[in-house]
Write a structure and sequence with these properties.
The structure is a single chain. By secondary structure, the protein is an alpha+beta fold. It has one domain (about 5-200): Nucleoside Triphosphate Pyrophosphohydrolase (Alpha-Beta Complex), CATH 3.90.79. It has helices at about 5-15, 90-100, 155, 190-200; strands spanning about 25, 45-50, 60-65, 75, 80, 110-115, 115-120, 125-130, 145-150, 165-170, 170-180, 185. It is globular.
Amino acid sequence: MTPKTILELMDARLDHPERPAHQPARGDGDLNGYSAPSGRPLKQAAVLAPLILHGGPPRFLFTLRAEHLTKHAGQISFPGGRREPGESLTETALRETQEEIGIDPEYIEILGCFDPYETVTAFQVTPFVGVIKPGYTVTPDHQEVSEVFETPFDFLMDASNHERHEREFRGQVRRFWAMPYEDRYIWGATAGMLKALHDRLFGDVEWRD
């Protein structure tokens, strides 16, 4: 897809960034027999899906979490984290992006947000899409991020690349979305949010068990 087509689609299909949904619509339970919202108390968080439309094919930017972290070590994610008191979810996504990978908010144009996602760890994560403007620099905080890399938009938004995987965790089989690309294994909540973005942009499909 061309950058112009992507921007038109985002403008038509995403929610206004200052009016995110109040309840999660997707979550880790979607392929495991239960769906969001669960009704349990949830901590608010936000992530940014950084979209690069210049200097080559359209692509998303991801982080590889540091191996020494106590939670989600070595996993692929969008920059983001827990909302701090007094800030909006948009501000959370921008702050966390600057803290984790050093991209100043002045180089980010927020296009909108989409389906909040409920994680098994009791977070409600609101994902925002933001175009990264030319001139930015990436400076990862290696206390949190071991690597920053890019993956083509067209690959991630191709439904044929959305795979259902499963693994045993604490004696139970858990199913999840995965989008392996070259030597990268994008899975779990990040893949679930990408699946939700695909369905938002290109039309809902029947995908729950």
